[in-house]
Amino acid sequence: MRKIVMLNQKGGVGKTTSVVNIAAALAQDGAKVVAADFDPQAHLTIHLGIEPDKVEAGTYKVLTGASQFDDALIEARPNLFLLGANIHLVGAESELVSVVGREIIFREAIAKTKQNFDYLLIDCPPSLGLLTLNALAAAQEVIIPLQPHFLALQGLGKLLQTITLVSRRINPSLKVSGVLLCMFDSRTSLSEEIKSDINKFLDSARDSDCPWSNAQIIPTFVRRNIKLAEAPSYGKTIFEYEPSCHGAEDYRLIARHLNGKTIGNTG
Ligand SMILES: Nc1ncnc2c1ncn2[C@@H]1O[C@H](COP(=O)(O)OP(=O)(O)OP(=O)(O)O)[C@@H](O)[C@H]1O
Ligand SMILES: [Mg+2]
User: Fold this and answer.
1) Which ligand is nearest to the CA of 14?
2) For residue 19, which atom of ligand 1 is closest to its CA?
C-alpha cells in the first residue's frame, strides 16, 4: 500500500480538495483506495457526501483503539473507502496525550489490515499536532499543496522541520515526494515567480540527505476552477459534479502522474 499524506499547516490551500479528487480518480482507474479524514472539521467526509454524524467508528475509534482499521472504513464509492471524521475527533489529541507511543498508533493500526489496498491518502488538519504526527508516522510520502500567492512559502520551514524530526525519530522512510500547486492562475506572473522560487529551493537540497531531496513540483498544476469550489456542497467529487471541467482534467492527470511512479518502500 502506498501511503501519502497531504500536508500544509496553512489553511485553505487545497489539501482536502486534492485528497478527494485524487482518491476518486485513482479509484476510477481501478486502484483500491482509502481516503482518511484526519481533520476534526470533517471536510473530507462531508465532501464525499457522508454526514460526520453517520461515521460510527472512523479515525477517532481507530486512534483510540476502539476499532480495527478495516472495520472503521465506509465504502463511499466503488473502490474508494473512507476513514471518516466525526465530532469526537476534536478531542482525540488531548485524550491521547498521556498514551505511550501515541504518535505511532495509526501506523500500528493500518499494519493489521487484511485488505489489499493500493493507496492510502490522508487529509491532514491545518496544524502540526498529534493527528498530523500520526499521519506522518504511518506514511512514506508527503505531498505539500501550495497556493501560489505571496505568502505561499511562509510556514514551509516549520513544516519541513517537523517532517525532518519525524523522519529522524519515528519514520526513516518518510520523504516529501511532491509539491502540488493548487488554485494556479497562469495569468499572473506571481504564480510563475513562486513556481521558480520553489524549484530553486528544491534544487538546493538535491545532494543532501534531507527528506525533500528528491521532491519535485508535480508537473500538472490545479487551475483555479469554480466547479472545484462548488462540488463539496453537493457531496460530490469533481468527476461526478462536472467531469469535463478544468478541475476534473487537472486532477485526472495528477492521479495518473502519481500512479505512474513509485517512491520509497512499499509494503
Ligand atoms: N483549484 C481550485 N479552484 C477554486 N477553488 C478551489 C480550488 N481548490 C480548492 N478550492 C476551494 O478553496 C477552499 C479551500 O480548499 P480546501 O478545503 O481543499 O483546502 P484545505 O487546505 O483542505 O483547507 P483546510 O486547511 O481548512 O483544511 C475550498 O472552499 C475549496 O472548495
Ligand atoms: Mg481541509
Assistant:
1) 1
2) 18
Locate cell 525532518: which residue? 164
pTM of the complete model = 0.96
Closest CA to 89 of 135, 121, 47: 135
- Asked, for residue 210, whether it belongs to a domain, the answer is yes
**Residues lining ligand 1, Cβ inside 6 A:** 11-17, 39, 43, 126, 182-183, 222, 224-225, 228-229, 232, 247
Query: Checking DSSP bridges between strand 33-37 and strand 141-146, what pairing results, if any?
Result: unpaired
Domain containing 159: what range? 2-259
Residue 255 contacts residue 26 (beta carbons within 8 Å): yes
Q: 177 in a domain, yes or no?
A: yes
The ligand 1 atom nearest the CA atom of 226: 4
Domain assignment present for 264 = no
Task: Count structural domains, the chain.
Answer: 1
The CA–CA distances, whole Å, from 11 to 15, 25, 114 equal 9, 24, 34
Q: Which residue lies with its CA nearest to atom 16 of ligand 1?
A: 14
Query: How remote is the CA of residue 43 from the centroid of ligand 1, in Å?
Result: 10
pLDDT tens string for the chain (267 positions)? Answer: 999 999 999 999 999 999 999 999 999 999 999 999 999 999 999 999 999 999 999 999 999 999 999 999 999 999 999 999 999 999 999 999 999 999 999 999 999 999 999 999 999 999 999 999 999 999 999 999 999 887 778 889 999 999 999 999 999 999 999 999 999 987 778 888 888 999 999 999 999 999 999 999 999 999 999 999 999 999 999 999 999 999 999 999 999 999 985 444 434
Q: Is residue 100 part of a domain?
A: yes
